[in-house]
Amino acid sequence: KGTPAKSGAPVCLTIDGMTITVPEGTSVMRAAAEAGISVPKLCATDMLDAYGSCRLCVVEIEGMRGTPASCTTPVREGMVVKTQTEQLGRLRRGVMELYISDHPLDCLTCAANGDCELQDMAGAVGLRDVRYAAGENHFETRAAEGENPRYIAKDGSNPYFSYDPAKCIVCMRCVRACEEVQGTFALTVEGRGFDARISTGTGDFLNSDCVSCGACVQACPTATLQEKTVEEIGTPERAVVTTCAYCGVGCSFEAQ
Ligand code: FES
């Protein structure tokens, strides 16, 4: 896996002035976490291989050009890393602005309100203003204009969860969870740019290879893939970690 520390020869580096030693092969993001430094992120989780798509976790590394993603950059002996600078703050707010510019601004009535990583990260990077067509959403606008409903409609065909493309930030966590956690390969991405969306390739979840394991729902950082019980009665006040007996994989889930 990309982010968790691996066993290997010890590597010593400096992050935000703190000296830390981690095993070779550890990502800069994980090394920072081990030093108690939290780097903003959206596409990385401890459960999945590093992917490097959201560009929120960028850092500055002495001697290295540009601002590499900390989740996909392995540590090197003597590295000097900065995770909080004015430039990084500007870059992260710019990235968040672009995400929010194409996301519904219905947080107060959204089922994920208070439990949404997009919302959390907007706060964490200090986003206060969106310059790019704030309040408009590509899929909603197209739906209002009567475009192909199969392409843009919310999919409630699965009995346990719904899929709302308007809220998708295409971080690929669901696709990767389906592949890496469940080994099902039921999801992919179709389209590019504003048209990019998660797809089962069959039109809806019910008539796809999806086995309803919930790995994609658990991986989703927004309300794009949302349990129907949460939509109906709200976020549970407590969670119990259990092991799914559905198949032989033995995934652990937080159950209501
Ligand atoms: Fe590193 Fe998304 S968390 S690029």
From TrEMBL:
Domain 2Fe-2S ferredoxin-type: 9-87
Protein name: Formate dehydrogenase subunit alpha
Signal peptide segment: none
Taxonomic lineage of the native organism: Bacteria, Pseudomonadati, Pseudomonadota, Alphaproteobacteria, Rhodobacterales
Domain 4Fe-4S ferredoxin-type: 159-190, 202-230
Domain spans labelled 4Fe-4S His(Cys)3-ligated-type: 87-126
Highest taxon, organism lineage: Bacteria
Gene that this polypeptide is encoded by: fdhF
Family: Belongs to the complex I 75 kDa subunit family.
Shown part of the complete sequence: 11 to 266 of 954
